[in-house]
Write a structure and sequence with these properties.
Strand content of chain A: 15-25%
Number of helices of chain A: 10
Order of helices and strands of chain A: HEHEHHEEEHEHHEHEHEH
Radius of gyration of chain A: 18 Å
Helix content of chain A: 25-40%
Shape of chain A: globular
CATH class of the largest domain in chain A: Alpha Beta
Strand order of the largest sheet of chain A: 6-5-7-8-9
CATH topology of the largest domain in chain A: Rossmann fold
Number of strands of chain A: 9
Oligomer: homooctamer
Chain lengths: ~220, ~220, ~220, ~220, ~220, ~220, ~220, ~220
């Protein structure tokens, strides 16, 4: 094993906190080492994000079984955190094309042991899709809204609810969408108060923020 | 009068078409010459756009009276075109801050002798404002939608109507709004089909397009 | 079939309207499911856009035959809408390199049952190409103008016609063309009134806008 | 009074909710009308943001006394909302130059009847300034972090606290700071999880989000 | 006179070449010193560009008379270079709003003792304006084309002439025109070969390039 | 052969002028058709630019031999134009990495029957490379300067020569070079007069401009 | 004195280090308070940067005399640091228009008690200006190079010297210069190794870096 | 061997200085020629940067052994320079994902015969990682700081040390990170003085600057 391979390994052992491995751009061998390590040491909670199926499928089947893996959300973890947080989160998406971000948020919350429900395909080109579900959505403490293109969902949604909305712009779209920049700016420019925003495609980040907020404001379920 | 002053003057006389004078950036003296000329030769229809009140108020009162002038729309004209076009246009705006663009569109249509009605303050942060008027809006042939910031109005509106929507992004907003660029990109990225867009703050251009469309598809009223 | 596959399927069945499937970025398996479904249920009108030949060629030959497919326009549909709209649309392009957008517009209009004719290769580097056809073009109710690079076609065209021009910038070009942004901005900055614009490469969107305009202003052919 | 003056007036009366008037870009006469109206009808809670001292000082002294006005925060209101929200918010700023945003957030929370405390001048060029206060900061439920330039405060802060951090980039700085864009992108790119972001200089928006979060997760104090 | 004032002075005396003083951004006192010096030492040819009338009018009348000054072109010089260059230059502009750049080019050529003629108002929204003059234009050796907004003039012109075209984008326009960037990119993306481009509003630079080209290819008139 | 294949074919036959085929982005089959046509009809002068070796190598050997092909310049032509232009062009490049643009310019001039010489590797990080050749360079009528990264070559060169300089920015470099945009802006901002610029990597365009200039100012060699 | 005025005051007293006050954007009253405080407590070394003459001239004459003030560099300080650093710095500028940045660097070094010499007007449009001074420049330990527009000076200079070059891009220029961004990117893209760069117009920052480097590598003069 | 292959070869022999070959974008055959040449002529010191393993592994094993090659740093050299420079450099990185840049800097310093030590994984999301090493870091003369995303490491580090910091932004990150632009701007906007910056991912450039600085200020070790 050459000197550059096992770089993330020692850090993982060093901290007691749940470890997050952002897999994109990481060396294939390094990832497999980490997946094998945590797959055989299951008492260490760990979440792998942006983990492509091609990498995961290279693991031995017994190791694969140690993990729940979601192909669309590109996430793998062995077990969620033991403490369950009070409160629950609604995850609303504009379209199914935003699914890779929507489900990354859902899976991250699952790993953090936070209750959540996904409401897909609520884009504003057909308002009834959102309006028919708004009453149910309003029963959740926090809302994560996932949308690409012009991301008008966030503006409409935050006008319909008293809940705070965490916007996640996605890179869905072409031309002026500029890989999510238009969705990002739309959310930040939102005329309706009660919205804050995370990086493009960052479903993980929105879930982290939601988790920290519930932990801080509502605490652990006993 | 030095050689650079009367530049637009000869062109005005050369064409039979209604003359449009885009006043922004033009020399004060040149503008006053033009305003005086057309104010005393009222049978020549002319529209001045982006004409600031400070300039207009420098005219003699008798000349001022030759024009209808609108302070917010920053437009002046002597009389509308004689031919009245078939069809009518609804002009919807997100907020009263977009008024300088909204009314530029209305006034341009008035000059072009096209029937129109303004529906202000229909931004999507309060959906009921749009929904309570949508039935009336749907009775118009074309819709001009004026919005700044994230311009979500256009997406919602085009999902609620069968009428084509001409979007006019405005420079209203700050920070990421980038002088209307976010509104422009939002409209162009609109997920709901049936929208086309003009330049930022270009209420005049939207009215021109609407006028040309009605003239082409519905003709002159006899 | 895992939970993320058939996402667009239920929506398709839910609405009576002609269904549009934007294929780019969609999962190969999902697309094939949809193509198979509509290919065997031909009374449901559907339009697939941005559908690459590699995907379409994976279908069974009997299913392929249910569709008309156009390789350059990357579109497939079973049958056009039954109602024929009044009026007709001229589609003008600057060059044959813009063909993938030009023909997407033409095919979408065909699906919407709108009469149209394509005039290719009218770029302004050789003005006679446009001028020799302008008389014929002027007989159409609406004009869709497709151009990349600096998109000067739109400015010249709108100065030569009384018809409204719907501009479609294309991503054709390199360097400062910036994937269509220069063409887009050129069209929006157009000095000649009567132009509105859709997203880069969005031939489909221009056709939708034209269809909605004719439907609204001229109605259904009886 | 011409037709464009009293645009925001009727809307204000229409809703029971606290009214927010974003004063920037609004007509001087319109603002004075609104200020006079609410200054004499004090039972209607209203918040004016981005209200320059030059405007406010034009009011009669008796009307001025109806308001608390803050020159730096550029905000005016008659009285806070009657319901007091549970929980409290720490507002941390990188430097005193960010004061116009920091205090806009504080004043908005005051108007919303939310307890808050400002910790100014905690920029990371001198880490001890933040570290010596972190224990006290950690006693608050939510954190609003205000910073311009490269906004490194947000990254360091979110690594030192379990509380969620709402980042507000400011337009402080020159050259590459690009009116707050670098601060905005830095916050969105933050390597430390638990951060979400609002528009540049939008202290008001951060306070709204915090208020909605506490209302949703902790409710009204009885 | 403090140490920072007379900075450009010694350089002027050092070289035998015609001196160019770019006045924008220069200190008022420094400019007046230079104007006075050259106004009393007229055998030294010098060209002042971007010289505002407010500055020039501060000179004593006797000094003013030493110069020819053009208010629109914002240029002043005492006498042109003594050598006359062979060949001549046509300067075409899209509109009179581009005059400040058009005439800067003309005046610079006059100073360089190069024959030139200005053809204003040839924008392509009315093609006949260009086409009726193209035969005369074609008799010039080089063409300078000045245009703002979408600058389609350059594309059309270079398709109509065998002469090389030097494009000068101008900052005329608003919204997507972005202070001349759209005009610049349009010219650089021009589909018709035989065009090269200078900086935005740089009429002086285009004239320099034309002068150097004629000097190099056609030499001095004897 | 389906309807979209032979699009450029008829245009080629229509004009007597030398035909230029910009091959990038064109369909492989279309290119091969064109190459075969002109390879067997050699009296028709044609230039293929941006023609990748992979395409060219698919031709039958006998057809390949009809062309001179240059792998680095990615150009092919059968024979140059018959008329030889007076004057000659120096092509200077900053480094050998700019070769694909440098030689495209040289090959285009060769096709246009213009005398030229290439001076490679004259970047300013080692000034002697340029200074030792400047005397020879000055004997040419026009200079084409090719450079990527910060493109300082153009500024230095135009300060050392009386010849006009046509700058060609290249996409060589990484990070802030932004695919040639920094080189482009550097050339346009050049402090030394006598420079004009073409699109990024557009060696062909620079050669066209040089050809047109010599033809216009110096005429055909008899 | 209201609560927002004396914000920077307590920090100044808290640290033993030389205090830097970045005056731009600061409140006039706050600045005058600070200037008065340090002007009467001269044993506290302090540097004011970006201090406009209009502010400074408001001080009582006796306080003004406590400071050395430089109008062009916009800096004021009472006395330099007592420790003199080993080594010396050459400050090279492209033109006198860059003076406001050049002299800010010089004055900052003077305040830090570092020996330096300014070489103005060395832009590469006339190479001899740099080459005639390069031998003297090479006797300095570090070089600060100040340039706007395309900033080619940095590339040429770093190719002529073995000394490290600290580049300071300036906002001098117009059009594509984009307030210094082109100069900044040019310096960062510099093909000649041995260059690092600071923010646009940040003469102060370059001097700080030079001071820290000499202090670290050469120490205090005894 | 065709005319475009051995372009860099002759230059290499021409100069006595250590040769640097930037391999990215270079022709595979050219690179192999150069590697073979220097691998058999080992007394000529040469450094290959951005050399991908796929290229290097194509060499004969005997040639491979002439070089030390580092897969992560993508660098190869035969032997370091003979003269050892005084002073030493600390290389700090935010995370292991920045390794390809971090180790490029380290390897370049090794080639230049400069002592250095790498401190990886010091990102500010866990401040203790940096604080626990700061005392050791402070013993080095210069610091190179490598970071992507929002690059807050540089701000914190320069506030903790008296040593000058050379920032190297990396392209690590997604969305708003924009391939390193946010990290670059963050470093340039750094509120803490004593920082200068090189191009994105330019570990080589930072090492060159450090080498030149030590050579200039501390000289050769005897």
């Amino acid at each position: 094993m050459d000197k550059h391979v096992n770089f993330d390994f020692h850090r993982t052992l060093r901290t007691g906190q749940p470890e997050i491995v952002f897999s994109a751009g990481k060396d294939k061998n390094s990832l497999l080492s980490l997946l094998n390590f945590f797959g055989t040491n299951k008492n260490e909670p760990v979440l792998f994000t942006r983990l492509e199926e091609e990498i995961f499928s290279l693991l031995k089947e017994s190791i694969q079984k140690s993990y729940t893996y979601d192909r669309l959300a590109r996430t793998a973890f062995t077990c969620p955190l033991s403490d369950k947080v009070n409160g629950k989160v609604a995850i609303i998406s504009a379209g199914t094309s935003d699914g890779f971000v929507t489900w990354e948020a859902q899976r991250t919350l699952e790993f953090f042991h936070v209750e959540s429900k996904v409401f897909e395909d609520c884009g504003v080109s057909g308002l009834w899709r959102l309006q028919s579900r708004i009453e149910e959505i309003n029963e959740y403490d926090l809302i994560i809204a996932v949308a690409g293109m012009e991301a008008a969902l966030v503006s409409v949604l935050s006008g319909l609810t008293k809940r705070p909305v965490i916007g996640v712009p996605t890179s869905v779209g072409y031309g002026v969408c500029e890989n999510g920049k238009t969705a990002l700016n739309s959310m930040l420019a939102c005329c309706s108060p009660g919205v804050s925003v995370v990086n493009i495609d960052n479903g993980f980040g929105a879930a982290c923020f939601a988790h920290k907020t519930l932990l801080s404001c509502k605490g652990i379920r006993k």
